[in-house]
Structure prediction request, 331 residues.
Amino acid sequence: MSTPSFTHLTQLAAERLGAKALLCSDDFFAEKENLLKAGRGIFIPDKYTDRGKWMDGWESRRKRTAGHDWCIIRLPVQGHIHGLDIDTNHFLGNHPPFASLEVCTLDENISLEELSSEKIPWQEILAQSPLKAGSQNFFEIQHDAAVNYLKLHIYPDGGVARLKVYGEVKKDWGQVAANELVDLAAALNGGRAISCNDMFFSKMDNLIMPGRGINMGDGWETKRNRTPNNRDWVILKLAHPGYIQQILVDTHHFKGNYPDSCSIEGTYLNREQNLASAAWRTILPQSKLQAHCEHSFEKEIVDKGPFSHVQLSIYPDGGISRLRLWGTLER
Prediction:
């Protein structure tokens, strides 16, 4: 099966981004929180708990009464949903035959008691649909409103390894003051890693995740390159066009494999233009890096923009944990 194009958008229901599984009807065999973890889930043949087989997903018990099971999830930000992956990886004799999804927009401080009431204005965006066992079940979604709460229904019971919700962050930029510094690259603000020449060891998306990297795998790392004068690169689409005032390049956890140096360029593209027409300008000239260290740049910035996209280059190869680009908005 080919991967749908919507999977290149931001994964809004990611635990590492701040999504939380708040309530469910039943998670007797495996906890609801697993739905939001990274990857597709693993299987350990001989691992059991006092409740039965250990599974890396959300799994309810076999239902002996009327009804079906459900789980409510809060997204870290409001977003427009374009696609779903209801992944039943490793759930073979115990997957749900069907699933549906409802959404709504609520105050993020709503109580769990209120959230479980029948007054919540849930709106269905995925009608009850068949699921395949041990598979990524992709669904394209057409829904215009930005939402921040989800309710996954499974019929009648069973296990789902992961729920991935792909879309675009909806941030109210009107609430950002003219001189306020925001991280223009941050995934939580709507920034996206859209292209790179290599991500052999770890993915480019990690660069703009919240917090510092938790280990060496939680960053962007390229393979060892033997070509003289090699340069590896990644391109980010900023959450909002803006003027870059401060830069942080973090090589946290990268000790024997950090890049020798890096540089950053920027371009400004309107909606009709694409990267093929980009005219790149130097933001940060090639600068030395150290192992396992946060590098701050401000006086070194030679062009503040405005920019809509940036390209981080590393020389000759290696790993970067996080990239922060603090700036002000283009109005």
About this structure: The chain has two domains: 5-169, 178-329.
